[in-house]
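Lab notebook page, bench 4
Experiment: in silico fold of construct C2
Operator: M.H.
Input chain length: 98 residues
Purpose: comparison with the prior construct
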Amino acid sequence: MQATLVARTRIVYAENAFAELVLWKVPAPLAGSSHGFKYRLAYVVDGVCVIRYDNEVGKGDHRHYGGKESGYSFTTPEALLAAFERDIRRWNREDSHS
């Protein structure tokens, strides 16, 4: 069984900002993850990815915010999307001037 695409979308927030979300259902957890999903969520402002959630093979679930990387505890796709949206709101409120 191969990976099945669950969602792929681009959301435009402003002329210079968009989010891209890609989620696959995979037959077995990726190395470093304990769930059956592969994902990449990115928020790009002025051509720079300022927020990203992904679970790169071998690296596991993690989050990039600005220039910092930290672990992320995946529970559900819905919780992942909610965390990503919170970070976008926070970025737009606090960090958009950087």
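Observations: The chain has a mean pLDDT of 94. Strands lie at 4-14, 17-25, 37-45, 48-54, 62-65, 68-71.
Next step: discuss at group meeting.
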